[in-house]
Specification:
single chain; about 425 residues; alpha/beta; five-stranded mixed sheet; two-stranded antiparallel ribbon; 18 helices; about 50% helix; elongated; transposition; DNA recombination; Transposase_mutator; transposase activity; DNA binding
Length: about 425
Amino acid sequence: MTTKEQQEFEKKVLDQFMSGKSLFGADGAFAPMLKNVIEKALQAEMDSHLDSDERAKGNKRNGKGKKKLKSGFGSFDIETPEDRQSSFEPELVKKRQTILADNLSDKIIGLYGLGMSYRDISNHIKEMYDTDISHTVLSQITDQIIPDIKALQSRPLEPLYCIVWLDAMHYKVKVDGKITHKALYNILGITKEGRKEVLGMYISESEGANFWLQVLTDLHNRGLQDILIACTDNLRGFTEAILSVYPKAQVQLCIVHQIRNSLKYIASKDQKEFMKDLKKVYRAITKDVAEDELLNLEEKWGSKYPVVIESWQRNWEQLSQYFQYTQPIRKIIYTTNAVEGFHRQIRKVTKTKGAFTSDMSLLKLVYLVTKNIEKKWTAPLHNWSLTIQQFYIKFGDRIPLEINANSSGASPRGIETSDRV
């Protein structure tokens, strides 16, 4: 390179750098250098491939092909060496590969997980990297996580989860060109170490006890043998479905769901006074006090709202399980807030979607959002060492706490030594 060419090159680099343009894109100052390095590396791979054995088979070079590569540095064209028998499999730039670096694929998947549409992602990549990527290629890139989704849906589970919340979300999905309503079932569990886990994600036409039975059976087949407390909404037949698979489980119906369902049948002029009386029931100190207040509720409102009172009485056994525990545990199990909070975080991302193109497109986005949420689940639930002790006392041998042989204090796994009784 002459002095003049060197000066022109340096000026081009500086101008592009100051203007924010890609130095490696189609017109980038460094593009010829990157192109040259990649092509030389591919030639070296071909030289290695055409060893004495290959040449003995009659294989040799057979010209060059062309390929446009997209990368985090921009897009550029390269020449690829070819062999007569088409047995050359390059490692640097594989056959049919158009995305040079995995980091660009990771960026695209990350943007998709934030709820960005393919159009928005394509525009963002074009602006940032001067690279055009079609919707088809974007879909192929996000499809890379499908094996991870299937692995999550089939992964082995622990034999015991202390608390399990089961709830469904509802979405619109295109099926054969028509919009269909689908239920996305999510199961959130707490291990005996007090850590949250998403146990599974399932899609069905609608939410119902029959499909929940299939979900529970799948959890059992994947290794989940026992649930101490199952927290659910008030879906008819749900309790029976749970107990048919996990007969020892305590089923706690969500108090908040019960209240919401009750208020649907209470006249607006009575709701404030009714709620004042109802709070005395579900906020009672003990179950006995709660049952006395439930009788008072029936005496005052039973004739006017018999359906509401009958619903509380019919479901009372499953609504009142939380009275067996101290306040911190009651707060965890008397509602499905844990899984609903999880759902709220998912909806923040999915709310911009009118309808998903397929079940898998829905699962892809929910899976990516879930992975982002799980990054925050780094510690056990607050005061879990005290909670697990209460569970251990109540449920005994159903909680196989392991003895840590490496600890001189030999404290059971899941119970900190400083908190032991």
